[in-house]
Design brief:
There is one protein chain. The protein has three domains: 62 residues, Structural Genomics Hypothetical 15.5 Kd Protein In mrcA-pckA Intergenic Region, Chain A; 92 residues, 2-Layer Sandwich (Alpha-Beta Plaits); 74 residues, 2-Layer Sandwich (Pseudouridine synthase). The chain has six helices and 18 strands. Strand 9 and strand 10 form a beta hairpin.
Length: 245
């Protein structure tokens, strides 16, 4: 019977209640109940079907977690600083804040340390980058079982053919592993639209190389249902309450 027991924090993450790190913090604070009983022991294990409740304190704390969208320029890295390049989080300043709502301001501007990138965007690519304190969003966007679409506009050099287009959609592999099915459409004579549900390192550029195309410009314009829209290059905004990936 004990073989079927799973760590409480893992079950909470699997159910999308929070990240495992958040779960451990909530358990330590006494904010988690299993079948109506308080659990404050780290590493506590439960059966997968048991009922879990979290206190209003946990829900309130989670509501305060911040998610921001950046239109990343070329020359910035998505995550940690590397080789002297600046991480995109450095763009989150009051002067770079952008909103269509003039009433909204940066009064909660004290959250930068807790932000982590939810996916990568190459240093020589531009467009939509998500940074969040919310582990649920990270899991949804970059978890192993994520099915969230990412849409890119790709300018290229070379000649596109129907055969190459079919290979880009489904027929290529990287590092010995077959790629998931993509949606690749011709936008105009030098631009393609890519819609992917995975994000391997420099995936689009490498895919294009495999069919004899050279990428000269790459911009991510959508993640799930959230679009880059009119957000200017180098600016950031909050994810709105009614926006869902």
């Amino acid at each position: 019977m004990n073989d079927q027991l799973i760590r409480l924090s893992k079950v909470m993450s699997m159910r999308g209640l929070c990240s495992r790190r958040e779960a451990d913090a909530w358990i330590e604070k006494g904010w988690v109940y299993v079948d109506g009983q308080l659990v404050n022991e780290l590493g506590y294990k439960i059966r997968p079907e048991q009922h879990i409740e979290v206190s209003q304190h946990a829900k309130k704390e989670q509501k305060q977690l911040v998610t921001v969208l950046i239109n990343k320029p070329i020359g910035y890295v998505s995550g940690q600083a590397e080789e002297g390049y600046t991480p995109a989080v450095k763009l989150i300043t009051s002067s770079n804040y952008w909103s269509t709502n003039p009433q909204k301001n940066t009064e909660k501007f004290n959250f930068i340390k807790g932000l982590a990138p939810c996916g990568r965007l190459d240093i020589d690519s531009t467009g939509l980058l998500v940074l969040s304190q919310d582990g649920r969003i990270a899991k949804k966007l970059i978890g192993d079982d994520s099915v969230i679409e990412k849409e890119y506009l790709v300018r290229y050099e070379g000649k596109i053919t129907e055969e190459k287009l079919q290979l880009l959609n489904f027929g290529l592999e990287l590092d010995g592993k077959k790629l998931k099915r993509a949606k690749v459409l011709i936008q105009n004579e030098d631009q393609l639209k890519f819609v992917l549900v995975e994000g391997r390192k420099r995936q689009i550029r490498r895919m294009c190389e495999l069919v004899g195309l050279k990428v000269i410009g790459l911009k991510r314009v959508r993640i799930g249902k959230v679009k880059l829209g009119k957000l200017p290059v180098g600016k950031w905004r909050y994810l709105e309450e009614d926006e869902i990936f």
